[in-house]
Amino acid sequence: SEKLKEILYGEQFIAKKKVKDYYFGFTENDKYQGFIKKNHLTNQTVKADHIIIHDKTRLFRSNKINSKLKGFLYLNSKVKVFQKKKLFSNIGKYWIENKNLCPLTRFKNNDFFKNLKTFKKTKYVWGGNTSDGIDCSGLVQELMKSINQKCPRDSKDQLKFYKHKVSLKDIKKGDLLFWKGHVAIAINKNELIHAYGPRKKVVVMKLNKVIQELEKKSLKLLSIKRPKK
Question: C or N: which end of the chain has fewer Cβ atoms within 10 Å?
């Protein structure tokens, strides 16, 4: 069936009922409903206290840089730190470099643009929420997560969620442009960045060019919203 979104490590999923090898429920953060495989969940009893602030953060078998790699975690994943050494922190089975972690109590970032580099040229994947694949509304949601702001998953809900409307002539860096089924982020008055299906990746484009391209597909610009900073 259709993939709706990806859930990052450490995000809470509230399971409502079991259906064969799946649980039906919703994500605690944005109340997004869907099915998830049972073996992709763990009944976590400890609360996460750190957040991953760099993408594709490597997991190590021990607290040594030359120890065996055991995969990685994505930007905005949340973990529980059990032990902290000079350079590494233990999160259970694995260790993470301290430079890639931030305590949730000290997590403060007001500029989501510094995380845009994580997603530039990322391939377009419907329902994606990581730098291995992302869609237009997933990009907006992950960037908002990176500045500790709640944000709905789908563009139609993001359009309703953000209330501060601005005109095209007053657009500035960080404003969100909405079409039916699509959202983009203004870089300045002339350019935007978005996960764009026709280009199959996250791209920077001229704002007017995108408006014209979508108008040819009978998609008119619905609104421009300014998220609260």
Answer: N
